[in-house]
Amino acid sequence: MTDWKDGIAKLTMPTPFKVGDVNAYLIKGDRLTLVDAGIKTKASWNSFKAQLADLHVSTNDIEQVIITHHHADHVGMLDFLSDKVEVYGHPLNEQWINPTEAFFQEQEDFFRIQFLDFGIPPEYFPALLNIRQSFRYSCNRSLTGDLVEGMVPPGLREWSVIETPGHAQSQIALFRERDGILIGGDLILSHISPNPILEAPALGEKERPRPQLQHNDSMKKLLSYPIQFVYTGHGEEVFQLRELIEKRLLHQHERAMKVNNWLKEEQQTVFEICKTLFPAAYKRELMLTLSETVGQLDYLASIGEISSKDHQPVLYQAR
């Protein structure tokens, strides 16, 4: 049964995704605040309402939503909440939660060039470039206001914002210093390592982000805060944060060095490396496995282990 603990209630809703259930959090403050809003399905909405009833709360009592990042399983049910509910998050959420035709076109144009660079066969393009389809579980709302590094959210005077890009460019965490509680979105999960998902450059930027490097930096950033435990976007709470971050960083380095060893043997494209890294999953989850692959290559380039030949497709080799 859902209950309050230190003014926070954890809500867990089903998703149709492989990651499984997603968590959201209700916070008692000057405003009753929902952190993250699940996915846009009837099953999620019904589960959400049942758990609110356990807390003697209705959807009409929620005054505002703060979103940790723009992925559909964290924002979809915004479409089911009243238009009077205010929505706050990092400004980079806006283009994703309220997408325009121009946005979809920019995404498709960016990824079409990326896929040529990656050496992906043309027969994969139609599925990969069906950007609109990936929004079917998302929402069509707009931010009421922006939250960036160091801000105190409206109605939550004890909480402050930490920017934590990597898994998503829009990702933030909320920290309450008096008891060391972090609501971390998908930055750190107890049971799996979050994907550093590829995104197009933000408006006005030319270089694509390097999400694996950002993700590593965001995890390291947490080590400078007196965090006691983390409420996560999926799965159980994290209590041994430093140990888990060190484990995640080591595992990522080891995986990258395995790729580096392959590149000592022969030059390869992103797609070739992706197929070797994820032989059972690359066809089913090509976008996620490509993101992971590019993340390892970005990391190896950042530590000077590899170089690339600038033509289509791009070939990577060990130095």
Report low-confidence residues grouped into runs of 5 or more: none
Number of strand elements: 13
CATH architecture of the largest domain: 4-Layer Sandwich
Order of helices and strands: EEEEHEHEHHHEEEEHEHHHEE
Task: Please state the structural category.
Answer: alpha/beta
Helix content: 25-40%
Mean pLDDT: 96
Work out the helix count.
Answer: 9
The major pleated sheet works out as: 7 strands, mixed
**Tally of discrete structural domains:** 2
CATH superfamily of the largest domain: Ribonuclease Z/Hydroxyacylglutathione hydrolase-like
Q: What do you see in this structure?
A:
With 319 residues, the chain is α/β, with parallel strands linked by helices. The protein folds into 2 domains: 4-98 and 138-239, Ribonuclease Z/Hydroxyacylglutathione hydrolase-like (Metallo-beta-lactamase, Chain A, 4-Layer Sandwich); 100-126 and 253-319, Orthogonal Bundle (Arc Repressor Mutant, subunit A), CATH 1.10.10.10. 33% of the residues lie in helices and 16% in strands. It contains 9 helices and 13 strands. The strands form 3 sheets. Strands 1-2-3-4-5-6-7 form a 7-stranded mixed sheet, with helices on one face. A hairpin with a 5-residue loop joins β3 (22-27) and β4. The relative contact order is 0.12. The model has no long low-confidence stretch (mean pLDDT 96).
